[in-house]
Amino acid sequence: ISRTPLREALLHLESQGFVTILPRRGFRLNALTLDDIRHYYDIIGALEAAALKHAGASLGPADFARMRQLDTAMAEAVAARNFDQYYEANLAFHDVYLLRSDNTRLVAQVHLLKQRLYDWPRRERMVQAWEQHSVVEHEDFLQLLERGAIHEAAAHLQDVHWSFAVQERFIHAYYFASQPLET
Q1: How far apart are the first and last CA of the chain?
Q2: Is residue 182 packed enough to be buried (19+ CB in 10 Å), middle (13-18) or exposed (0-12)?
Q3: Ramachandran category for residue 163: left, alpha or beta (phi over 0 → left; psi -120 to 50 → alpha)
Q4: What pLDDT digit, counting tens, does each position of 111-128 carry?
Q5: Which backbone phi and psi does 109 adopt, to 5 degrees?
Q6: Which of 35, 47, 110, 153 lies in the 20 to 30 Å Cα band around 1?
Q7: DSSP secondary-structure letter at 27?
Q8: Cα gap 37→42, rounded to integer Å
C-alpha cells in the first residue's frame, strides 16, 4: 500500500479516536478508558433507542422470528464458547431493527462505536456470564417488541441493555480484569 492511502486511513482512525499519530514515529492504538466505555454505552443506548422508536412499528413477525433465531444462535455460541459466532449473531440481532432506520448516519455511528468497543481491542476469549446475561436481555427485549410495546423496548435498550451501571461488572471483567478472562 502506498503512503497516501495509509496516511489517509490513519488520519481517519485518529479522527474516530482509534489511534494517535506520533509524528515521525508511527502511531499508537488508543486504550479504552472506563470513561470512554461509559460514554460509548450512553451514546449507543440513546441512538439505538431512537432508531427503534422510529422504525419499531415497521417490525413484524418475520423480524421477530429472525431475532429469535439469532438469539438462539447466540445462546448456542455461548454454550460452545465461540465468541466470534456470538459476536456476529449479536450484531445481526441489533441490525434487524437498526437497518430499518432511514437515518444512515445514526446507524453508521452505532456501528462505529461498537467497532471501537469490541474490535479495538478484540478479545480472543469471552466473559461467558456477560454473554449469557445478554441473551436473556435480548429475550426480554424481544418479548416487549412482540407485544407491540415499542417505547418500553426502547427504554429496555437504553436503561438495561446499554446501561453502563447494569453492565459495569461485566465491563470490568472484559476490559480491565487482571486475571485471565473466562474461556
Answers
A1: 36
A2: middle
A3: beta
A4: 999 988 887 666 666 789
A5: -65, -45
A6: 110
A7: E
A8: 9
- Which three three-digit cell numbers place residue 36? 470512554
3-state secondary structure of 56: helix
Nearest-angstrom CA–CA distance, 101 and 66: 17
Q: What is the DSSP string of 79-142?
A: HTT-HHHHHHHHHHHHHHHHTT-S-HHHHHHHHHHHHHHHTTTPPSS--HHHHHHHHHHHHHHH
Task: Supply 131's cell numbers.
Answer: 454473554
User: Rounded to an integer, what distance in angstroms lies between the CA atom of residue 65 and that of residue 20?
Assistant: 43
For the stretch 17-57, pLDDT in tens is 777 888 878 887 777 889 999 999 999 999 999 999 999 99
Residues paired with 55 in a beta bridge: none
Give the pLDDT of residue 16.
72
CA atoms of 47 and 2, how far apart (whole Å): 37
The letter for the amino acid at 116 is: R
Cell numbers for 78, please give them: 455461548
CA distances from 122 to 18, 67, 161, 171 (A): 13, 24, 20, 14
